[in-house]
Amino acid sequence: MPDSYGHAKDFFNPNLADGSYNQTRGMKQFRNGSHSKPQPDDLVVIGASSRNGYGHLFIVTEVGSDYISFIQQNPGAKNPSRGKYRLSEIKGRWYIEQEAIQGWLRI
Question: What are φ and ψ of residue 10, in 5° steps?
Fold first, then answer.
């Protein structure tokens, strides 16, 4: 990754179009609500929230028809290091159903 610095929320560039190349991170970038379904090894970016101003990152480990499985570090005392989130397709767009998901990055 050309630039690995910054808070997790900064890994996603909101000014880029869905599917564009994020030069700062050296990865393609997809918005939550992309035509591109998440894939294993994608890096998912959670933006800042009222509970966490820095955002968070996790890695997709498995993708099913209606879920993704993930692994993460430093999840906090009330969150698991491994888990699942619901995945929905609405009018050809894919959404990870979790608060503040900005999107995912792919090598």
Answer: -85, -10
